[in-house]
Each structure stands twice: as C-alpha cells, then as structure tokens.
Specification:
single chain, 206 residues, Arc Repressor Mutant, subunit A, 4-stranded antiparallel sheet, 22% strand
C-alpha cells in the first residue's frame, strides 16, 4: 500500500475497507472520527447512513472498470475512482474529499469575497444578497478560488485541484466554467475573476 495512505489510516484521517486494500490497522471509532471512508471494489459492506450528520465521513468508492455502469454503486458514495489508478490520482481524490469534509463539518462558516457569500455546508451562493444557482463544478471552482483570493493558477492546476484530474476535456473546460461564473456573479461593475494572459485565472476583491 502507498505509504501516504497507510500513514493517513494510522492517524485516523481515513478508514480503508476491503480485502484488496490489504490494511489491517484498527481505528478506535469512539475517539477518532475519520474524514474519508475508502471502499475497495470488493468491500462487502454498505456505506454508513449519515442521517444528516455532517461530521460523518465522506465515502470514496473504488470501482472496477467492468462495474462502471452499475448505478447502484454510486447511490451511497460521495465520489468514485476507477481502479486500477495511479497512487497520485487516488490521493488527489482523498484530499479533495477530506477538504470538503472539513469545510462541511466546520459549523457552516460562510466564505466571503466582496459581495459574494458561499456556504460550503449547504452549497448555497449569494451575490449581493441575490441567490445564485451554480452547477456542482462551478461551485467547486468558485470555492477553490475564493479560498485562494489573490493567487493565479494555470488551467492545469485548476483541473488538478478542482476536477481532481490533470486533464479532462482539455483546458477549455476551465475557460467555459470561468465564463459561466463571470456571467452569474459579475453584475454591475463588479469584477472578481482575473485573467492573466498565457498563464491562467485567479480571483480578486472587486
């Protein structure tokens, strides 16, 4: 097993379940609350029912290629990864879910940039008090940029940090999502999204 995964399991940050993961560390669930539950393809266990408990771990399910069309596998999962995959891809998915878990369980504290307010726990966004409907990846991209105001990222960096992969649909995917965010959020004279030619995008205070 990848050393980083083993270390995370030892600390209680994640729980690894399933014989293929070949990891036998026991986690004291009375004292440690993991952020991510990683289910291997042959894990003979259902993901836990959170019943509205925002502190419960998020579920990352490993899905074998031949099972990708089985819709039942995704019903109780927060994300999935097709296996076999590279260790770096698996760790990216785990870290993304761990960050989401941390935000969700942290008392729904709002993130503000200018007139934009984002609630990571309820997935609600407002612009100058006006509710704004965002698609899932639009929300994730906005959250990442709001957490890193003033920084500029290349398109490849945004793909890796928001989409969780180094290339999916090409870098044009990033351009399309930035354009949608501008259309939905930049009302009046407000400008939030900065374009740096031949580099990428960033977010700034208006």
């Amino acid at each position: 097993m990848n050393g980083a995964l083993a270390a995370a399991a030892d600390s209680g940050a994640i729980v690894l379940m399933g014989p293929e993961l070949n990891y036998d560390a026991e986690v004291n669930r009375d004292t440690i609350q993991p952020s991510v539950l990683l289910l291997s393809p042959d894990a003979d266990i259902d993901a836990p029912d959170r019943n509205g408990d925002e502190s419960a771990p998020l579920v990352l399910r490993c899905v074998a290629d031949q099972d990708l069309d089985d819709a039942d596998l995704y019903e109780d999962s927060d994300d999935f990864v097709s296996v076999p995959c590279t260790p770096s891809e698996l760790i990216k998915r785990i870290l993304r879910l761990a960050r989401r878990h941390q935000l969700t369980s942290a008392s729904a504290e709002l993130v503000h940039v200018g007139g934009i307010a984002l609630n990571p726990a309820t997935y609600q966004v407002t612009a100058n008090g006006r509710p704004v409907d965002l698609a899932w990846l639009e929300f994730q991209l906005l959250l990442f940029l709001m957490e890193n105001v003033g920084r500029v990222f290349t398109r490849d960096q945004l793909l890796a940090n928001v989409w969780g992969v180094e290339n999916i649909g090409g870098t044009r995917t990033v351009d399309v999502h930035i354009r949608r965010l501008r259309y939905k959020l930049e009302t009046g004279n407000a400008t939030y999204f900065r374009t740096v030619k031949n580099v990428g995008y960033g977010m700034m205070e208006p």
